[in-house]
Amino acid sequence: MDEEALTALAFGPDAGPLDPIPRDGSPRQRLLAAIVLGARGRYAAAADLLDPLRRDRDPLTASLAASTLASHRRQLGAHVLARKLDGEALLAVGLRGAGDHRTGVAGDGSRLSVGGWAAVGSGSLGVDPGRAGTGAGSAAAGSGSDGTAADSGRTGSRTDSPRPKPAASPGGSAANPDSLGVPAEDPHGLDLPGARADALLGLAADNLALGRISAARRLAVRAAQADRRWRATVRGGWVGAEIELADGQPEAAVAPARLAYETAVARNARRHIVKSGIVLGVALLAAGQEGARELVVAAAADAEKYELDSLNWVAARVAADLDHDRAEEYRFRSRQVLHAVLRHADPCVMRIAHESPWVPVGPG
After folding, report:
1. Of 21, 208, 229, 343, which is most buried, counting CB atoms within 10 Å of its CB?
2. Does residue 173 sit in helix, strand or coil?
3. Model pTM?
């Protein structure tokens, strides 16, 4: 399978099941393969590809790999692990182009360096690492989502943290023969602005799941300043909707969720359409508006059709609350798919998922 086919699976309309997914090739091909594997719920296989990429000498490659792994961790409730990875991703590429260049503004109005922003994801703000994965999330939790010291329990993974890398320069890293080999601007955001937005949105989602709504809002604003292209717009809409839902403002959640859905549809990005349909459906339901059932049922059908198991169990879970005639069928399918996903997860993440309050691994 060539790079074009992998790109279509990751970001285009061709999200269908094509096997085998290649595990070799250029850094970009391996990153795309990991994205596709994660979408199918094959998290351990994705982590095997992402771990070496996180240690790549190219900061862009390392950042995108860390953000992708963080997204996979977050999808199963491992928000503290994800937060460390997102902080690592931001440190790799810096904040230049995301607002005030390499500084931000802390909650008390003081200046905050790029290292300080990354510390929002490093576990340094008083979050007990023992609470990993216990943050609250909504029905579409893990929205910020498209083995290290932070994931030392994964079988066969290294326990040492990757060597810190200098922040990437604005000109990118095309001269590095081990880099992603992308142009200065990539249509899907696999470039420096996109990497910054991915890291910031990931940190926003991580902090939101841990109850830090104000921090999540600030980080989401920074992400919008870093990148306004289609994928960042979609992911920003997911996170924006989740922020409003968590803040008890369901009516305000509808607009960002709808923007995400309409942007994904305009791009014909199948995986993003499915996720956006779930998020918009949850927002409409919470706001007491019409249209939620149709969106979520369609998302569940597409997740099943394209074997997007990372979304399938969530869509079925939400659909059970909206389609009362098929509620038991949807609940059974959700448990069935989630069981399969956990069988393909890393041992430490499987444990965290069992402890998470929003991953329904128990009966019911």
Report:
1. 208
2. coil
3. 0.80
